[in-house]
Amino acid sequence: MTPFIVGVSLILLLGAFICLYRVLFGRNLFERIIAVNLMGTNILVVLILMTYYFKQIFYLDVAFAYALLNFVAIIAVTRCAETRSRAND
Amino acid sequence: MIEIFTNSMAVLFLSVGAFFLSLGVIGIIRLPDIFSQLHASTKCDILGAGLCLIGLIFYEGVSFNALKMIAITFLMVASGLVIGHAVARSARRAGVIPWQIDREEIIRLEKEKLLEEFIKEK
Fold first, then answer.
1. pTM listed for this prediction
2. pLDDT, average across residues B17-36
3. Chain B partners of A82 at a C-beta cutoff of 8 Å?
């Protein structure tokens, strides 16, 4: 089971790095927001897999806090970006 | 015996979840527009993370940690729905223009193709 967990984690980390490319070279603000959200999801699943690789159960609480933080951050940024006029640049 | 069953279920669900997460990443990179990218990314949030967490619940068994992971699953599903709606609405209100296929271009290409077939038949 442990090599499988390591393989899945490596695949998801690769996906997170590809999302980082979209964050850096996005076409507008909202594409960057979506890429940050997807990167957060990938990192969350990697974090929960690391709970079983390192056998540290408190990583689950970290994952819960990370999911909540991701949600609140995305909602706040979209609320701010709604009134911004530089959407299509 | 029961351990073999739970491990195989965990491997199955984790594989499908990782597949959906990779699909979301490919959609983020390849699709041309904010709204179509949102279409890929919401599936990735709900199906990918949800199935990965269900697989790890099978691996964990009945305990308090499994309850925590069920809570994270519900949180991910609810937040994925809300984030999809909020991002699409704010993008629409900020004036992002949806991507459209250039119809004139497509009609011209179709005409050229028909013309080539016509010439071949002659």
1. 0.83
2. 90
3. 89-90, 93-94
